[in-house]
Write a structure and sequence with these properties.
- This protein has 226 residues and is an alpha+beta fold.
- It folds into 2 domains: 10-129, Beta-Lactamase (2-Layer Sandwich); 140-218, Arc Repressor Mutant, subunit A.
- It is built from 10 helices and 5 strands; from the N terminus they run αββααααβββααααα.
- The protein has a 5-stranded antiparallel β-sheet with strand order 2-1-5-4-3, with helices on both faces.
- α4 runs antiparallel to α5 (75-88).
- The chain is elongated and about 55 Å long.
Length: 226
């Protein structure tokens, strides 16, 4: 891969070396979704979790694996197949999905990120976001505190946020910090349309119809205490 480089030392670095240096479990697929390369974190994760590289390694069709899991009742597998297909078909430049993949000893969350490569190939990486999810689950979303001159106004009760799903709470928390939709999507490794869908759902649960109305509601600008 780097054999023609003029930079000193790069001649000895192979594509596999670069792939293995990635911290996240990653595979390379050809245009048909057949796995043509895996990295060391992928092999390690497979072995440590009781997997078999013969069924999830070189030569295996990633979409076939997803389809079998989906047929067995895994909704996440069906979503993963759709993510991969969108990139392989060049419908999307990138595709993301967040999912839970817990072990017998701990709850774990990952983000599947699929990106296109030359030759209609694609790379799929599984980013471990457990630390982030645990921190966000522990940090309750509280109403923005009132400042001087806002006496008498009542903020949205914290209990109202209990109606939001975990994903909606993550999106709303960032909205309240001033993030725009694209920034929220980038930080959560989801698409902007997913963020908008989660916001729309959150709006319906507290009776507003826009981002600004939700922000005003949380800050107590229009909450009437009912």
């Amino acid at each position: 891969m780097f054999g023609n480089s003029q930079e000193p030392g790069l001649d000895d670095i192979s594509a596999q070396d670069v792939l293995d240096a990635l911290g996240d479990a990653t595979v390379i697929m050809d245009a048909n979704a057949t796995i043509v390369a895996v990295n060391e974190p992928w092999r390690r994760f497979c072995i440590e979790n009781g997997g078999n590289l013969s069924s999830s390694g070189l030569g295996v069709n990633y979409l076939d694996v997803c389809r079998r899991s989906a047929q067995a009742g895994s909704r996440e597998a069906a979503q993963a197949a759709a993510c991969i297909r969108r990139v392989l078909d060049r419908v999307s430049k990138q595709s993301f999905m967040e999912y839970e993949c817990s072990s017998p000893t701990e709850r774990r969350w990952f983000v599947l990120r699929v990106t296109p490569l030359d030759g209609n190939a694609a790379m799929a990486s599984h980013l471990n976001i457990t630390a982030r999810r645990n921190a966000e689950r522990q940090a309750a979303i509280a109403p923005v505190p009132f400042g001087a001159g806002e006496q008498g106004r009542k903020p949205l009760p914290v209990a109202a946020f209990a109606e939001f799903s975990a994903a909606e709470r993550e999106v709303v928390a960032r909205l309240l910090r001033g993030y725009r939709v694209n920034a929220i999507a980038a930080e959560l490794y989801v698409s902007p349309s997913t963020v908008r869908s989660q916001l729309s759902s959150a709006f319906g649960k507290v009776g507003v119809s826009s981002q600004q109305e939700l922000i005003d509601l949380v800050r107590g600008d229009v909450w009437d205490g009912r």
